[in-house]
Amino acid sequence: MKRILVTGGLGFIGSETTIELIKNGYEPVVVDNLFNSKSAVLDRIEELTKVRPAFYQVDCCDEKALEKVFGENEIDAVIHFAGYKAVAESVEKPLEYYRNNLLSSIVVLRLMKRHDVHGIIFSSSATVYGVPSRLPLVETDPVQEATNPYGETKIMIERIIEDEAKADPDFKGILLRYFNPIGAHPSGLLGEDPNGIPNNLMPYVSQVAIGRLNHLNVNGDDYPTPDGTGVRDYIHVVDLARGHVAALKRLETLKGVDVYNLGTGRGTSVLEVVKAFEKATGVKIPYVIAPRRPGDVASNYADCSKAERELHWRAVLTVEDACRDAYNFQKMNPEGIK
Ligand code: WQD
């Protein structure tokens, strides 16, 4: 298994994964429509790995254009990142999220079938667990109605992959349920680079740290958690990328579909993230307590023992490592990647 189609391969997690694939002797073929990424990321991947992967600026909803990529490359497996991922935006624009995320996935799966590509790794999310009934979350915990259309698309695509595997004995898939990806490549060349005001905590804190935003609004301090603020399982994006390489190895021997949580197994509150950021960078992060954000759960963190056992993978970088790397990336790219 050598040539890996990476959809969304210039994105935050996709680009880190492309780097880890190259470092592990794979040949990534990158597809990205640049809706939520920059073509300059390709130059930075080349700078970091001395390899310039094949790149196609293609929207995965465009079956004709994506067919060309399969036709021109002997693809062995697919890692499917491409999709919209902003929770709040998905509540405002559900039709766009259902169309884009479902159609792109169905097109990828149809072309895999047509071109005898049997294995997919799908970028899923802890959001599929909905409001956790117990913690830490294990893969056998029920998939419940998500608190937003973004999460619903992840649930539906997991279902589509499972149904396809039931229908086609040659087809196999790994569903990777990410918790909260944070941090950046230690070089500062790649990182989380959202358009506009960040929804997610870490890029928001990083922009406060460089003075681009005035202060952090802590979304609620009256949750049933140790310090009242939301608790999440923050995983360094480089650890997450390495988890994909580990999953690719598992895919070679897999039958059917399997699911893995990719997290650290530890919960960290918003105020603990602020403290870790200040410790890692020496920069004070001013904040105010703001109202709760609709759709937020109080606490969410993973049991990752299955990935450790079966993928021989576990996260090794800390929240402080991620704060240091995120700040370094933000300082080197104050207005984002140009
Ligand atoms: C984390 C914590 C907020 C911003 C979502 C998706 C998940 C994945 C990551 C895409 C919460 C608090 C945040 C701020 C704050 N999606 N917060 N002030 O919502 O856990 O996960 O994004 O990759 O699938 O569900 O991440 O970073 O938005 O929030 O207090 O300005 O930080 O309330 O407790 P979330 P987040």
Précis, in short:
This protein has helices at about 10-25, 40-50, 65-70, 85-90, 95-115, 150-165, 200-210, 235-255, 270-280, 305-310, 320-330, and strands at about 5, 25-30, 55, 75-80, 120-125, 170-180, 180, 215-220, 230, 235, 255-260, 270, 285-290.
Topology summary:
Elements: E1 3-7, H1 12-23, E2 27-31, H2 40-49, E3 54-56, H3 63-72, E4 77-80, H4 87-92, H5 94-114, E5 119-125, H6 149-167, E6 172-178, E7 180-182, H7 201-209, E8 216-219, E9 231-232, E10 234-236, H8 237-253, E11 257-262, E12 268-269, H9 270-281, E13 287-290, H10 305-310, H11 319-332
Parallel strand pairs: 1-2, 1-4, 2-3, 4-5, 5-6, 6-11, 7-10, 8-13
Antiparallel strand pairs: 9-12
Helix pairs in contact: 1-2, 1-8, 3-5, 5-6, 7-11, 9-11
The chain binds UDP-4-deoxy-4-formamido-beta-L-arabinopyranose.
The site of UDP-4-deoxy-4-formamido-beta-L-arabinopyranose (WQD) has 18 residues, from α7 and β8.
Structural summary, described in words:
With 338 residues, this protein is an alpha/beta fold. It contains 11 helices and 13 strands. It has helices spanning 12-23, 40-49, 63-72, 87-92, 94-114, 149-167, 201-209, 237-253, 270-281, 305-310, 319-332; strands at residues 3-7, 27-31, 54-56, 77-80, 119-125, 172-178, 180-182, 216-219, 231-232, 234-236, 257-262, 268-269, 287-290. A 7-stranded parallel beta sheet has the order 3-2-1-4-5-6-11, with helices on both faces. Strand 5 (119-125), helix 6 (149-167) and strand 6 form a beta-alpha-beta unit. The protein is globular. UDP-4-deoxy-4-formamido-beta-L-arabinopyranose binds next to helix 7 and strand 8. UDP-4-deoxy-4-formamido-beta-L-arabinopyranose binds at residues 85, 87, 125, 127, 180, 199-201, 204, 216-219, 230, 232, 270, 293, 296.
